Amino acid sequence: MPTAAHLIQDDLNLSPKQLGWLFGAFFWSYSLFQIPVGWLTERFGAQRVLAAGLIVWATATMCIGAAHSFPVVLGLRLLLGIGESVGFPAVSKLLAAVVPVRSLGVANGIVAFGYLSGPAVGTYVGGHMEDAVGWRLTFVALGGASLLWLLPWSRVKLPPRAVRRTDADKPHWWTIAKQKSLWGTALGLFSSNYVFYFMLSWIPYYLVRERGFSTAGMTDMATSAFITNAVAAIAAGWVIDKLIARGRSANNVYKTTMVFTHVGSVVCMVSMAYGSLTLALCGMFAYQALCGIQAPGVYAIPQILAGPRATGRWVGIQNSVGNFAGIVTNGLTGVLVDSLHNFTAAFLVAAVMGFIGVFGWVWMLPELKELAWEEEDKKAAAPAGELA
User: Fold this and answer.
1) Domain that includes residue 78, residue range
2) Dist CA 361 CA 241 (whole Å)
3) What confidence tens digit (pLDDT) does each residue in 332-366 have?
4) 164 falls in which pLDDT band (50, 70, 90)?
5) Minimal CA–CA distance to 89: which of 178, 172, 222, 189?
6) Considering the entire predicted model, what is its pTM?
7) How many CB atoms within 10 Å of residue 238?
8) How many domains would you assign to the chain?
9) Distance of alpha carbon 31 from alpha carbon 82, whole angstroms
10) Mean pLDDT, all residues of the chain
11) Which pLDDT score is estimated for 167?
């Protein structure tokens, strides 16, 4: 959608504000369905839930290619969000069940390499296909190709503890929701996602409309930036695990990484707001590297804190809150660009939102280790007088 935004805008006669609604519609359903999906992954098994979600989101992608009106595309974007909502709760459940803490950096780095290289491949292939055969056929082809993933996934054999159905009532929902650290990771993710989704959704449009790139030029530039993101993610995961193996605490390594990347993103946004073309492109690539470095911690931290019993629901709640950033950033950016006719204010808002994440990842989190859920359940169930 971001790569084809200017083509869809011309074909369907859409305003920047309507584009913002299309970008943001995905996040309404994507965010709202995270919580029930987190429960489903623990009750019915993450492997099957993940496959079902893929079928939904691939079908929605293909159907967008046949849509001819704003309301229809809007509805299909909502369906796309429902399908994709299964991704992180299911994957986090699988990793928490089979990967030890000392290896979560690499494991999450590999996963991040996948979901961050996806935009790189999608931007490159999609952009050049759109240039050659139009955006409609591109959506149909890429959506259909996604379904091929079901073949290898159906043959993956996971350990029983990773796929078996579990009692998704312990620890209790209320116990999980009362954790300050849950809301810390949710705030951190909201901050991270505000900047990430702003860049993911609007940078192709920004490069074409404000910086004068052609569709092909924008495609190559954005693809290179997304590749930087993906490579940085897997490299950062490896470095994080090496530091922990050499005696550094997971607590210090992950929290230091999050502070460094959030503060760095502020500098990148300001450089893109006020810099020359060269400085803006440097800021864009630097941000993608920082985003990749940050990626392993975004889900390794909740996987450590929640453990295998609660990770699906924890990540579901965290992602539900965190992904409302996609609604806010796309809607607000559409309004700002539509009214001011430039991206300066949008980049400055992204800078402020990027800094807020430091509070969530650092000051709202305890030492990174699995919470004692039996004790937490007792605290949640005890009357206030007994706790006093």
Assistant:
1) 5-150+175-379
2) 19
3) 888 888 888 888 899 999 999 999 999 999 999 99
4) low
5) 189
6) 0.77
7) 15
8) 1
9) 8
10) 86
11) 52
